[in-house]
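Q: Could you fold this chain for me?
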Amino acid sequence: MSKIILKQVYLLNWYGFVDKIIPIGKNLSLITGENECGKSTVLDAIKYAFTGDTDFNKATSATRVGIGRRTLSSYTRCLIDPDTRKYARPSNSYPNVYTHIALEYHNELYDTDFVLGVILETNSSDNVDNYWYSLENKILKDISFFNESKGKKYVLSAKQFRDKNKAELLSKSNGVVKFMTMTGLKLQSEGITKYQRKLKSIMTYNPEAKIQQFIKESVLEDKNINLNKLKEAKDSIDEITASFEILEKEINDLDEILQAFNDYARVNSRLIKDDAKRVYKDLLNTSKKIDQNTKQVNDNTFEIDRLTDLLNNEKNDKEQEDVKLRNANRQLDQMDGTKAIQDEKEKMAELKLKDAEYLEKIKALDVLSLRIKEFSEKMSLEFELSDLSDPDISSSVKNNELNEFKEKIDQLLDHLNREGFKLELSLNSFNSL
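A: Sure. Below is the predicted structure, expressed as structure tokens.
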């Protein structure tokens, strides 16, 4: 159950409390001490700030300690001895005394803080003016009660407090109604009077009396009891309790659904991240293979150019040797010479050796053509390469086709790099979830 809780009480120049913050427990506060230590003084301060009631606690009158002391001016000037009228803050030394009582509250429902307070100004004639104020979304440490000048602290008057803390000062009647409203009582003047009377009865409770008598006389009011209304109220409470149980079950079911949804979202996010990582890994492997294949294609292209040049040279050499051979055959037909025959045999042997080398180079070109074809099919490239070993196809045609193949490889590599960059961006966004 949410409550409005009194957390701290601040007393400044209130009887013997010169500058004191008193903490208040959430559910219970116990004030103990010897006579004259200030127990009732604290309660009177809280009651006065909250209700404006100056009929202070007379519980100590039986021992004569409280006689003549429970007045505003006796509190603000700190009456030490009623018989000799001795004060701790006499008017001849302190013409004007500024007293502050501030109550710090916390609203559990809205999780907000506010401070309710009263400022008392006692003049040299012991007349007391009072000003109430409320500061929302503030705690005591946020509020200034002093001015500092030349290393000394001076208590703020009501006007100075208003200007420094931007507070609106209220009259007693308006201030008390404001306090009641902000603390959830919402009492008007008649209700405030009854509340003051009950509060005074509680504060004058004698622990030696019977507790039943105290509750009957000081707490409870005389009212006629209507049993039918009580029964109706009990039935309504039972219905509300049953409704709360149903709501609690539905809330628990919703919590389970939300937990299941959160678990699903977490698992789904992890699966998406795993898929992205796997795709990214495959992309890296594919990119690596493309780099390797590109290097291989470049090496093969260089080898093709070299072999093509060699083939062309060999072809020219072969044509020249064929011409020489035909000329030699014609010369053999015309003449007979052992030396000439021997020279021609040696030339024939050289030509056969070159023919063998030529055939090996043709085989290498066939292997290269096959590799290019397999790579094109594997990468789904729409490209058809001519037979590199075909002597009827010119070297320029072969070079143009190889250059076209290189361009397609470069385009494929650029496409894969762009896809890899997109996947990397997606992976980074998933990792940030």
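A (continued): The chain has two domains: 4-219, 261-431.
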